[in-house]
Amino acid sequence: MDLAKQFEEATAYAAVNISSSEINKLYPIVGAKRMTTKYGPTMLLSVRESEARKVQLFLPKIYCAVISDDDLNKINTKAVSLNLVYKGLCETSKSYLLGIES
Q1: Among 8, 16, 46, 77, which is least packed, fewest CB within 10 Å?
Q2: How many domains does the chain have?
């Protein structure tokens, strides 16, 4: 990949917090990758917020544990078409409630 393309892709996504997502809206997943931050292992999910805007968000650890490397490969090679759904905040634990739909 040429340098111009790498720069374009590096700035193509805005980082957002899951809580800023609209409840029950389908966000098409366009990419995913495992990474390690200062807080430990996590997963960065790239989703399309609108036709003109793509965003990246970090999944809570509980969800990272259920996504296999095979799932990641299918997402990144476009073998599957999935959507992330933000379902709100759990009143008891204050955890983000997420879902995946086809």
Answers
A1: 77
A2: 1
Residue 23 token pair: 């409840």
Which CATH number characterizes residue 71's domain? 2.40.50
The pair of three-digit structure tokens given for residue 74, joined into one six-digit string? 């299918």
d(CA 65, CA 26): 22
Q: Which of 17, 23, 30 is nearest to 86 (CA)?
A: 23
Nearest 5 degrees, angle CA 96-CA 76-CA 78?
105
Tell me the residue type at 56.
Q
Residue-wise pLDDT tens for the chain (102 aa)? 577 766 766 666 788 889 899 999 999 999 999 999 998 999 999 999 988 889 999 999 888 889 999 999 999 999 999 999 999 999 999 999 999 999
Residue 61 contacts by C-beta under 8 Å, 6 or more apart in sequence? Answer: 40, 41, 42
The model carries a pTM of 0.82
